[in-house]
Amino acid sequence: MKNTIIAPSILASDFANLESESNMLNRSEADWFHIDIMDGRFVPNISFGIPVTAAINKHAQKPLDVHLMIVEPEKYLEDFKNAGAETLTVHYEACTHLHRTIGQIKELGCKAGVALNPHTPVSVLEDVIQDIDLVCVMSVNPGFGGQKFIENTYDKIEKLASLIKKSNSNALIEIDGGVNLDNAPKLIKAGADVLVAGSFVFNSKNPEDTIKNLKSINNSLVS
Ligand SMILES: O=C(CO)[C@@H](O)[C@H](O)COP(=O)(O)O
Ligand SMILES: [Fe+2]
């Protein structure tokens, strides 16, 4: 049975209580911590940066999945690796020399991810798909939590899954934005391996239970 990875996004957590939010994720069935870095240039919002990532990493007992929504990400890869990143995801749209940047991430010993904005077709990854560990399909325009899921994402996942298969790549398909219990089963059926969920988890009454419910979707799909 496929084991979907659940990566709650810290962006929607209580920034004044990152230690207790981290401990909640440690106790929960979450697999990764999703860390959204926004620079006010690549996206029209600023979140937090390297010191806060390092502070979260002090408490996190699970891998940090760092989503860099920043221009010139190559300048900061090493800093984020030192802050605790296991996966470093850069945006296709922010990288002039994507192949080189992927190589730099691998040289640091991190997993290399590439994120695609909603308008970017999966075909742009044809020549690098074998070199990457994860493709983050943005199911909202990056920059903010709590946005509405874009329905075209299902088609995009199917196209990406077929590119990955054709290329003998091991890249995981991650979906980021507007994920909830209504769309998650369909996303998993279409081929998603990793689900990022921010507001759906942290705005719920019981985030630990919500994570458990997302994690158990696979079981219900089997029957
Ligand atoms: O990268 C981003 C947004 O740019 C995401 O990771 C959001 O943080 C997901 O939040 P929700 O849409 O689940 O509230
Ligand atoms: Fe993200």
TrEMBL record:
Q: Which domain of life is it from?
A: Bacteria
The entry's keywords: Carbohydrate metabolism, Isomerase, Metal-binding
The catalytic site is made up of D36 (proton acceptor), D176 (proton donor)
Cofactor needs? Fe(2+); Co(2+); a divalent metal cation; Zn(2+)
Record-linked InterPro entries: Aldolase_TIM, Ribul_P_3_epim, Ribul_P_3_epim-like, RibuloseP-bd_barrel
GO terms, molecular function = D-ribulose-phosphate 3-epimerase activity
Q: Which residues bind a divalent metal cation?
A: H34, D36, H67, D176
EC number(s) in its UniProt entry? 5.1.3.1
Checking SUPFAM superfamilies in the record gives: Ribulose-phoshate binding barrel (SSF51366)
Q: Which Pfam families match?
A: Ribul_P_3_epim (PF00834)
Reactions catalysed, semicolon-separated, are: D-ribulose 5-phosphate = D-xylulose 5-phosphate
Its pathway is: Carbohydrate degradation
Give the note describing cofactor binding and stoichiometry. Binds 1 divalent metal cation per subunit.
Q: Which residues bind substrate?
A: S9, H67, G143, F144, G145, G146, D176, G177, G178, G198, S199
Which enzyme class? isomerase
Q: Which HAMAP family match?
A: RPE
- NCBIfam families attached to this UniProt entry: PRK05581.1-4, rpe
Family (UniProt)? Belongs to the ribulose-phosphate 3-epimerase family.
Function summary? Catalyzes the reversible epimerization of D-ribulose 5-phosphate to D-xylulose 5-phosphate.
Please give the name of this protein.
Ribulose-phosphate 3-epimerase
This protein's species is Mangrovivirga halotolerans
